[in-house]
Amino acid sequence: MYRISPFTYLVDGMLSTGLANTRIVCSSIELSHFNPPSGQTCGQYLRPYITSFGGYIENPAATANCSFCSASDTNKYLAYLSSSYANRWRNFGIMWAFIIFNVFGAIFLYWLARVPKNKKEEKGKDESMERKETLERRATLERMETLERKRTVEREAILEKVSG
């Protein structure tokens, strides 16, 4: 599951770029002190171990009180963490892919949730409704005017009969 997380690639890229190809220097409290078997130097005694597992000896020619550091360079430590300096650009690209995907995903979700849909259809419906209402108002006004004319004619007719 950690391969899906962009944090994995961020940490891997930062570790590999910041720590790779660097020699490790142990402090005096980090060194292992011991005596080699008699007749051997520290370098002769630890050569097979160092070849297989890494590390370094501060005093390889000494025959007593060997000072051994179990780490000699950061690349072995990075390999233990499955991190490699060679993957730095891949990690950088994967981070940008995650960023771009998330930006477009956020824009799409905003569009999906917030942007009104079918605006042209609603506008067309609104305009046709307005036209229909205007025509209905005109028809109602014309009927009212017609009725008023009829009433006026009837009033005039009644007034002529009464006065005449």
Question: What can you tell me about this protein's structure?
Answer:
The protein has 164 residues and is mainly α. The protein has 2 domains: 6-112, no CATH class; 119-163. Helix content is 64%, strand content 5%. It has 5 helices and 3 strands, in the order αβαββααα. The chain has helices spanning 6-19, 42-53, 74-80, 88-114, 119-163, and strands spanning 32-34, 56-57, 66-69. A hairpin with an 8-residue loop joins strand 2 and strand 3 (66-69). Helix 1 runs antiparallel to helix 4. The longest helix has 45 residues, at 119-163.
The coarse overall form would be: rod-shaped
The largest beta-sheet arranges its strands as 1-3-2
Ranges where pLDDT stays below 50 over 5 or more residues in a row are none
Give the topology string: H per helix, E per strand: HEHEEHHH
Rg from Cα: 46 Å
Q: What's the rounded overall pLDDT mean?
A: 90
The total count of strands amounts to 3
Helical run tally = 5
Structural class: mainly alpha
Number of domains: 2
Distance N to C terminus: 107 Å
Strand content: 5-15%
Largest sheet: 3 strands, antiparallel
Q: What is the helical fraction, as a range of percent?
A: 55-70%
Layout of helices and strands:
Blueprint: H1 6-19, E1 32-34, H2 42-53, E2 56-57, E3 66-69, H3 74-80, H4 88-114, H5 119-163
Antiparallel strand pairs: 1-3, 2-3
Short description:
The chain is mainly alpha-helical and 164 residues long. The chain is 64% helix and 5% strand.
Question: Which descriptors apply to this entry?
Answer:
5 helices, three-stranded antiparallel β-sheet, 2 domains, mainly alpha, 3 strands, about 160 residues
